[in-house]
Fold these 2 entries.
Entry 1:
Amino acid sequence: MAREQFGICAEPNLHGNYLLFNVLDDKNAFIRAAISRLPQLFENYSEQFSEANLIGVVAIGEAYWDEFYPIARPALLSPFPAMNRDDRVAPTNNYDIYIEIRSDRADVNHIVSSKVCQLLGDSVELIEQVQAFRFLDGRDLTGFVDGTENPQGRHRREVALVKEQDDSFFAAGSYLHTQRYQHNLTLWNSLAEHEQEDVYGRTKLDNIEFPSDEKALTAHTKRTSLKDEQGNSLEIVRQSMPYGDMKRKGLFFVSYCASPKPFETILKSMVHGDAHGNSDHLLKYTQAETGSAFFAPSLNFLSKVAD
Ligand code: HEM
């Protein structure tokens, strides 16, 4: 049975480094060889710093996939669903390679990130890097706990991983979407606490969900808590982390799923809203600046990709 990259369903960490690369022309064979060595590199460092709970994930950009591995393509891999409505935007930009390095030690992340860059060498250009951190007790920088309604335990694997019967060649892989959001915290902090709570549909301090009939149709948890035609909840595994310095502050949003569809449907519900135009009011206080689609293949695939 194929095994997934362990970071996909891992518990949250204290520190995260997200590295986004583009590949230079004609370097595909080298890149395949380098990528196939990454899981072992992560494994070695996770043994060396065993108390740091290090995990790494590597994923391949949707637009680069066919060059990276022309033989086969994950069945549902498709471009990032860019969208906009009024002043709400979800832009897209392509990266060829995504590397997520998370652990409970910023120094270990630094060591591993440096090694990854060394391994990929001058075959790639580092286009974007985000250093992220756990904020208080797992809160977003808006002050609300993020991740409470995430699938838990073994259920995460059911939500995040491609099933054998759906796409046997890419089983245990995962469809990944990322968006870097920048918050307008000055505007957000001008709201009274109860107004902020209405925006999420949850209480701030003790993180309690509002009863459904007390949630505004524009509340973030109303717009994102959706069901399909059969009445099943649309689920994704969120692995987002806050990032920021004294100039830019926000959330690096990360979602893994067995299909790209749930993310697209939820994003649409946020940006376009329902039939009556109720869109997500959280988007008044934060704006997506990037948006990318990737596939994070199984460990079995990665071990053979250079053959
Ligand atoms: C719930 C923050 C963007 C999907 C939540 C919660 C917070 C939060 C605080 C409530 C606690 C929880 O269950 O995690 C944010 C922030 C965002 C953002 C700060 C951007 C800056 C997104 C995006 C999506 C998304 C882009 C998907 C397209 C969800 C889902 C839930 C949720 C599915 C759970 C809803 C429920 O079942 O109650 N988010 N989120 N979020 N968010 Fe977001």
Entry 2:
Amino acid sequence: TKEQFITQFKKRLSEKYAMGVEDASPTELYNTLGSLMHSAYSSDRHHTWRQYLLNKQKQAYYFSIEFLPGKLMASNLLNMDWLETVEEGLAELGIDLADLTEVEQDMALGNGGLGRLASCFMDSIASCGLPGNGNGIRYEYGLFKQKFIDGHQVELPDDWLSTGNVWEVRKDSKAVDVCFYGQVHLEEDANGKLKPVYKNQQVLRAVPYDTGMIGYKNNIVNNMRLWSVEIPNSEESKYRSLEERRTIEDLTAVLYPDDSNAKGQMTRLAQEYFFVSAGIQSIVRYYHTLKEPIHRIHEYVAIHINDTHPALCIPEFMRIMLDEEGMSWEEAWAVTLKVMSYTNHTIMAEAMEKWPIDMLKQLLPRIYQIIEEIDRRFVEETELKVHDRSIIDRTRIINHNQVHMAHLAIIGSHSINGVAKLHSELLKTVVLHDFYSLYPARFNNKTNGIAERRWLQLANRPLSSVLDKTIGTSWRDNPEDLQQLLNYQDDQKVLNALAAAKRQNKENLAALIKKTQDITVSPDAIFDVQIKRLHAYKRQLLNLMHIIKCYQDIKNNPDSEFYPRVFIFGAKAAPSYAYAKTIIKCINETANLVNNDPDVKDRLKIVFLENYNVSLAEVIIPAADVSEQISLASKEASGTSNMKLMLNGAVTIATLDGANIEIRDAVGEENINIFGITEQEVYDYYESNTYSAVSYFEKDPVIRRVLEAFIDGTIPNIQSEGREVFDSLIRYNDEFFVLRDFESYVKAQEKITECYKDKRKWQKISLINIANAGVFSADETVKRYADDIWQIEPVTEYSSKKG
Ligand code: CRA
């Protein structure tokens, strides 16, 4: 109750800081509340763990090099069912909960969609009562903080742990050793079995930090285990200088700020092995406490490889089965295949991780031996199956002096899935076609999903309360019940209430824009939002070109009618991705020009919000009218901001790419704005080699005028950047078909403006989008992983009958 909470809170504050509420700072109050919550859910964590143990439940382990939870206080309060009580209790003490959550730093141990998906899954797995855990790296520095200086992106370190982390628990007793480098050879042991003998290994200590993943009002608390590197006591004497120590500690210091290019760095490879080895060792150690025979481990353990970064799970698991558990190769391989499953998240060739053989051999000699043997057996086996030998060259793991991580992941997993229908089809028919012909039964689709608790219940409380009043509260447990909203699509009262909620969110975002960027925007304007990593294939440039066209139209005809629009961007560019940074500079300089041009008279505003992250997304998404999902068809594996924006009532403008297609199927053609060429047309262009960007420049005066603005000084301060963009389109033939799709994009945008002017029509479309977003609940997605791939079941209370 509220009274109990107030008493406990004051008591804890006094114990912790010897203070009363009046003297405490927001940080002290935040820490007090966090520690109170932590004590409360820890017993649930313990209970959950005991249930799994006593039931000997099969558990899934989601291995991911990225997790992107954002802030945890509000979502933990919601899931613990404490939110209202705590809010009211604090209010009584004169404290606003929002001031406390403000103190928390975003946990940003991920780049974008991949890491955020992992965190949505953690929330959903616990909320569905499923036994599933995360396994990853506790980076000391998360994704860089982005600042704009003179319109350029500048990266600052994200020292997120500097203020402490109330949610994590260091588990010294669960630390394990992870070994690198050295030499290895095989020797026969007393039983005639070959055993590896190591020399000159570097031994590092992996220390786990556990964070409770709290289920939604079900008392289930799962675990996200993140590993941090330390120098083991036994090795202390080896590393005398600060510098030597620092090199070791660097292993878990930073998250690689690049979600598309595999960087050829030893540290990255070492990171991959580090969390994989530590995670698998701790799983096997736990398995032994069940006292079940090792060859049945697949009945109790499922390991998921989230993109290729944890693909070393396969040889590492093999190593432990062979070298430590004494299995034969055949036995070890049989269980490994049954334990492992893999998700592919991209078809972009540059993101297909490959490592030079020499590097792997040097860093992980035993693992390399095992990979070689997996490859050898794969070739041997495949030779018997296929007539066309070239297929082996294209599918084997080791080729051209490189180790292909995706090939390893596919060959060693019983399930391979893509993240949206189109993406999974493309894997089968194009990208992984050879593998599909070898292992058709392994391939399946699992369309991504989102945690609707965070992205609607928490982020959009005005909308949530309209929903409660209109259709009751069952949607909070079962997002598919949002469908009931369809009964109100012609109810003007409901439409008005939805519009009022949107208005409130827009005012909220407008205030944030004023505060952080000092730009005044009117909530009456259309809020047009593109938020995602900056990447050429996502085509922020197409958006910018349309904005420039609008600006030129206004300049040419200053008194013409133009419905006010605010174009809102949020995007980080990988620090090494020069072209992406060029686009940022161009958008910022265009913003400068347009926002300060008196002719524009507030009809057009461009806002590029700095440091896009989960917390910022929670403010932007509820306020969006238009959702920009404009990647070149075939390139965006799924996208998930498309789902979040739809759920919050934004109307989508999209190409037929990724999950956009499934969004269209859910809302119907008339409630989404589709434009652009299809994936088939893209492939046709590749095949025929007939795309000519310059012809669009020559024949379309609008395109010509827009592109000239990049190089003729219309947009100031982008001499070199404007030229670079121009050249990428004209000289280098526009890799992502921006010019090809421009005209149809502009038309779709014009339709949006017309539609928006018809308030009632717009509101109805917005409602239809909200109502149909339930199918994208990550709860449903993880249930499909649980049933089809992991074969895990929700927890039940332990019954002694099970023995
Ligand atoms: N960059 C895809 O590009 C997808 C997410 C999550 C991505 C997105 O379309 O929604 O994964 N791919 O499945 C990726 O990280 C390494 O590949 C992404 O976030």
